[in-house]
Amino acid sequence: MFCYCSYLPCQNPPPMSAPLPASLPFPLLAGRVHEASGPGAASFAILACAQVPGPLLWISEDWQTARLDPAGLASFTDPGRLLLADTANQTDTLAIAEEALKDGAVALVVAEMTRPLNLREGRRLQLAAKTGGATGLCLIPEGMGSNAAETRWQCSPVFDPGRSADSTLMQWEIIKNKKGTLGAWHVRWDATAHRLDVVSPVGLRPGAAALRG
Amino acid sequence: MWFPRLASDRALRLCAVDAPFALTLRQANTERLYDLNRQAEAQGLSRLMPFAEARAFCPALQTRPADPSGDLRFLAGLRRWALRYCPWVGLEGEDGLVLDITGAAHLFGGEEPLLNDMRARLLRAGLETRLGLADSRGAAWALAHYGPRHGQTIAAPGGTAAALDSLPVAALRIDPETTTALQRLGLPTIGALVRASRAPLARRFGQALLTRLDQAMGHRPEAITPWTDPPHFATRLTLPEPIGLTADVMAGLERLLQALCAKLKAQEAGARALSLTLRRVDQNSQVLSLRLAVAMRDPARILPLFARMVEGVDAGFGIDQLRLAATLVEPLPLQQIGDSRAAQPEQLDNLLTRIGTRIGLDQIRRFQPLDSHIPERSFQLVPATEAAPCSDWSAPRPRPLHLFPPEPVTARGTTPPERFRWRRMSLTTGRATGPERIAPEWWGEDQDWRSGIRDYWRVETKQGRRLWMFHTPQRPGWFVQGEFP
Question: In chain B, whose CA is at the least distance from the CA of A159?
Answer without folding.
Answer: B464
